[in-house]
Amino acid sequence: MAAPLRLGVAGLGTVGIGVVKIVRRNAALLQARTGRAVTISAISARDRSKDRGVSLKDYAWEDDPVALARRDDVDVFVELIGGDEGPAKAAVEAALATGKDVVTANKALLAMHGQALAEMAEAAGRQIRFEAAVAGGIPVIKALTEGLAANDITRVMGVMNGTCNYILTRMETAGLTYEEAFAEADGLGYVEADPTLDVGGIDAGHKLTLLSAIAFGTRPDFGGIEIEGIDRIAIEDIRAAADMGYRIKLLGVAQRTGRGLEQRMQPCLVPDTSPLGQLQGGTNMVVIEGDAVGQIVLRGPGAGEGPTASAVMGDVCDLARGLSLPVFGQPATTLEASPRARSELPAPFYLRMGLLDKPGALAKVAAILGNAGVSIDRMRQYGHADTSAPVLIVTHKTTRSAIDEAIEAMRATDVVTEDPVALRIEHV
Amino acid sequence: MAAPLRLGVAGLGTVGIGVVKIVRRNAALLQARTGRAVTISAISARDRSKDRGVSLKDYAWEDDPVALARRDDVDVFVELIGGDEGPAKAAVEAALATGKDVVTANKALLAMHGQALAEMAEAAGRQIRFEAAVAGGIPVIKALTEGLAANDITRVMGVMNGTCNYILTRMETAGLTYEEAFAEADGLGYVEADPTLDVGGIDAGHKLTLLSAIAFGTRPDFGGIEIEGIDRIAIEDIRAAADMGYRIKLLGVAQRTGRGLEQRMQPCLVPDTSPLGQLQGGTNMVVIEGDAVGQIVLRGPGAGEGPTASAVMGDVCDLARGLSLPVFGQPATTLEASPRARSELPAPFYLRMGLLDKPGALAKVAAILGNAGVSIDRMRQYGHADTSAPVLIVTHKTTRSAIDEAIEAMRATDVVTEDPVALRIEHV
Does this model's pTM top 0.90? Predict the structure, then answer.
């Protein structure tokens, strides 16, 4: 019988407690499947006295996660602290330096320091596993790194921030304004302490960074993502999109182009009947396209105690079984520094603006679009009570830079009263 | 630099040629990801002279797949011959006996002989990998065996036979009869030489057998599946289902119950707006439910050159990387022989029958249902030209045995002109 695999768990929030519960509840099953017992030696969190609804007295306590990471009775350091600096980073480094493998749910840490940490781990012959960092319970890292390893991956897409999707879904189904939906999500504890992590698209951008690195064999490059949050989405956009058969989702897309790696995380319109369009609330979806496989779609819960702990413990099972892989699927030293490409793949766009209600205003805007080479597919002007009329335009396929050029020119006129919102329309 | 991993590929149909193409086209990528070259040493097929559209002159030829399996220059035997007996089985046994790992797309072989082959492989310290055997390009075996390994799996479901789904989709979208849709699928080469493998639900049943074994830690038990094909589905059923907001799918379900393992592969009604209901043509979908993760849905191409070869080569990558797992996720000798449970979980049912057009006929049927404890939710009698009236009934939740009891009693009357069709309604 193989020796037990001993975990040190740092961070006892929702996910940490989920991990403790699985280790206890499914102990027999974990042993049957991995051939060895999986146990917890020691734990660490900020507040020892807090009642977490589960007895922790069997586990040694460390106030300092770095001390936990260094313990001799820990084989795998499970990092559930969060944050891209501070104790999480220090503890992961300490774990690697003292010969432990690491399992983490920390997308920020790996998006910002993944390259250095992966090199450190691989030089030490250790692993960092992070299934839980992307799309919660969906085993997408494994699908991409292993199951689809024989494919030249052509595109990766995903709706990967449950908080944003919750806000957008509530705006659509309950007719709430952005501010109301945000307040509701915040009240339910769905929003991070720094809300821009969620609604600013940063959290989802961290996740896309990790998927890109694996998919394309490139160094994780969070700075290369064109990021746009959902905070400029108005209830009018939601309604207009619905009128035209679309829903608005914070969608991440990464693909390799002749000009380099294109990565974007932006609110987009997707057809309401498409799998992405039908995603509700906190459910995540990742779409992977490869030269051999075609398109694979993975859907599941993107967050929460059980799903995220399932992903953490899936990684732990891999380690218990002795399965060994480079952090990003190929040795970190072989990952390429890909040039960053601004997204130029043509798509139709949705434009919303306020126009001064006076003769010639619409003609001015139409001329500007024409000059930028943007042709109009559909246009709607809505009824209004004041001197500014809301105008919606759906363009034929065009590029982001043509749209930006047109918006720049519109701002320079005296007829645009509200800064135009431009959203890409994705037919996936 | 590690030594190359050398494949012997037996069977050069669609999938075999797909494998050859990936090995060539993605050679650099396979080496970057696995750390070693993946090469083909030798091949085997029935007809050496056939033009397969790709040059095979670099590979040694064997007429006999068993001889191929025994070659010293083969590390991994890739079995793409098919069939649960004969050369496929003999060659896999020869490969294991001479120290090779096996990658196969052969669901029939493993559904019928998986237990013995897995024990043989594990006793020899070898592996059998079969991602390509279930749901084509979807990495579902990996998701279940590894990604979700920490879960107590509660249910596995899937639409996993593209031919059946093609036929059902064509009946629905083009209004074809079953016979017409079957002939069309046959003309396109979608139907196996023995059509009952497809339309009889056997192929999909083989796949469910493999998923069950992994999910529940039980011995593969194809004989324990309640199998029903799609050949009794009439265009009237498709239309009536559509009228009521349903689509008909050949759906496999496996779950553990207090009475034992319940496995069924049957045409079912599913809501037309559900992910399963929206599957078109050859696309497959697998739904996995676990105690921690909740529900995961995986969708992708269920067959074809590229997708199936992607799955075969995903397994090859695992072997090239030195990843080692028991065939069914835990040692074959520890798999339980689970008692077979007939499906008794309550569900609404759809019933279609022909009734003699005379007073009291419907009353007789209604009384029979009542006596069996089956209550009627909706009933429709359609217009008709002869002496037999088509009658459709949707029941409230009831059990399969109550339905069977009622049908038995109906057959004994003199008013039922057409043997009733009963389909379960699944709200997934």
Answer: yes
